[in-house]
Specification:
By secondary structure, the protein is α/β, with parallel strands linked by helices. Helix content is about 45%, strand content about 10%. The chain folds into two domains: about 110 residues, Rossmann fold; about 240 residues, 3-Layer(aba) Sandwich (Rossmann fold).
């Protein structure tokens, strides 16, 4: 893993920070980064300034920010984990976090070492990514056996130990889950002297999640009897509902796959005006339904959940693939009553 940019940033901080300054690493890093990268780089910068190497206080406290409407609330009203390079740093970090976070209702958790705090963040995201990948297998079973996996999961979630069970969908995007399960390999290899630790489940989860939008592409190809020359509208290009962030969006993989197979692909998103990764404008308003062969719902934006598709479709009757559990049962039935073929990821035919 290339740490050159990160090292340069740390040296810059070390070249300007004043004695007694608290430096908190909040980004997601491989376990061992503070000890093997941050501390040495800061020490070198301090030596160059003829200052004691322990002049700065270094701590790690990873963010748990949730993009979208709850962004600010997720900073103030959420549990935080922290650790310090030494006792002084830990105390200073606790004092700072307590001034920002509602610790009365969301108490802080202190871990004994920065490696533990770094590992906690990576493990959180690896767990989430792996359980998402796990549900993909069950999505295919539900489709083949003819049951509704979302109903099954809701029934299981009644058990408190399984209340956070994941569901199948269109794909995984964003800056975290698409890469974080690979960070323990980096930490073990580069910092901990354990290149023998392979983390096969983490690696496989990344591979499965990257392929998720291709499953939707394959299903659409089967429903249409081929993609060449077909006109397809993709609803949703951000990587999660309620945000305009397209980083590593599974929609990009989907669009590129369909275009490679000769499909004419339109897309729309109520929150995204420009798709930077593709260098294309994204209409905020729905286009005309004329000539559409298929509609794929990729992101459960509230806009799509509330819209009346029947009115917008007019006399057009395209295939509709709900790839992210966007439509309600009533909406799916309404569209079927109109004469549309409606299929869902994670559900058997006709559900």
């Amino acid at each position: 893993m290339d740490f050159s940019g990160f090292r340069k940033a740390v040296r810059t901080v070390g070249g300007h920070a004043q004695p007694g300054c608290l430096i908190i690493v909040e980004t997601t890093v491989p376990p061992g980064t503070c000890e093997n990268v941050v501390i040495p780089e800061l020490a070198a910068a301090l030596r160059a300034r003829s200052m004691p190497e322990d002049s700065l206080l270094v701590a790690h406290s990873y963010e748990r920010v949730m993009p979208g409407e709850g962004y600010f609330d997720s900073i103030i009203n959420y549990w935080r984990v922290y650790s310090g390079h030494d006792q002084r740093a830990a105390v200073a970090c606790e004092s700072f976090l307590s001034a920002v976070i509602n610790t009365r209702d969301y108490p802080l958790t202190r871990l004994p070492h920065t490696v533990a705090s770094e590992a906690a963040k990576v493990l959180e995201n690896s767990y989430r990514a792996t359980t998402i990948a796990f549900m993909e297998e069950w999505g295919r079973l539900a489709e083949a056996a003819g049951f509704d996996l979302f109903e099954v999961v809701d029934a299981i979630r009644m058990r408190p130990t399984h209340s956070n069970m994941r569901i199948p969908g269109f794909g995984v995007g964003g800056y975290c889950l698409t890469k974080d399960p690979l960070l323990p390999l980096v930490g073990a290899r580069d910092f901990l002297g354990r290149p023998d630790l392979d983390f096969p489940l983490c690696r496989q989860a990344i591979e499965i999640n990257r392929a998720m939008p291709l499953v939707s592409a394959e299903q659409l190809e089967q429903l249409l009897g081929g993609l060449k020359g077909r006109k397809v509208l993709l609803l949703g290009v951000s990587y999660r509902p309620g945000v305009a962030d397209t980083r590593y969006s599974p929609s990009q993989t989907f669009v590129e796959q369909l275009r490679a197979q000769g499909a004419y692909v339109l897309f729309q998103d109520p929150l995204v005006g420009f798709w930077e990764e593709l260098g294309e404008e994204v209409p905020v308003d729905l286009p005309s339904s004329d000539g559409l062969d298929a509609i794929v719902l990729a992101v459960p934006h509230r806009h799509y959940q509330d819209m009346d598709l029947a009115v917008w479709l007019g006399d057009v009757r395209p295939v509709i693939l709900d790839a992210s559990n966007v439509l309600s049962q009533a909406q799916r039935q309404q569209l079927r009553d109109l004469g549309c073929w409606v299929q869902s990821i994670g559900r058997g035919v006709g559900l």
